[in-house]
């Protein structure tokens, strides 16, 4: 996927300005930036939910496809894009199970009726991709942050997309769950040759999994390896933190 000159304005205010970068197959790219930097707007533009200026060019098998600002694609086959939103909250007393949630999202079957075996098997197979088969009959309200992310990730992988976008997947996840989720993403990108694009505020783990980091604040301020971005003056000026291995900045 290639973005060129992507700009988004809402009610006369520039939200994104001239954003440009490549996302290659099998690559994990982390998007960082302060609140209000336009990260969610960028995701929604890629998903075709917002009008924009510029171009988003996909290069799947069969030739490139260009997504137009109205959300349509031309010049080739548009690839599948999977999306994991920020984790919703569920009441701990909510009786909805993972199976109910999965079937409601993937099948035209009334969840108040007994769920046929084929839907149960499909949901179990999808959860198996994220090593979450044991969650099938658990109530959604009883899941930990990491377990909920597994369920949402399994949904995004049904069917397996070419590009996987995750909005703050590490938010609300404990250290153990975070480690498991990052290992899973690495496994998925290797197994399916996925392009993975995720936003995060957890800078300390970037060098463990990200091939590239994009620092965004309405426009791309810095792009490169985790160390290049975390050690940059642009990162310090944005977050007033000194990180990375490239030395401190005055």
TrEMBL record:
Keywords: ATP-binding, Nucleotide-binding, Transport. InterPro entries: AAA+_ATPase, ABC_transporter-like_ATP-bd, ABC_transporter-like_CS, Metal_Ion_Import_ABC, P-loop_NTPase. Residues 1-242 form the ABC transporter domain. The keyword Nucleotide-binding applies. GO terms for molecular function: ATP binding; ATP hydrolysis activity. Pfam families: ABC_tran. PANTHER family: ATP-BINDING COMPONENT OF ABC TRANSPORTER-RELATED, METAL TRANSPORT SYSTEM ATP-BINDING PROTEIN TM_0124-RELATED. This is Metal ABC transporter ATP-binding protein.
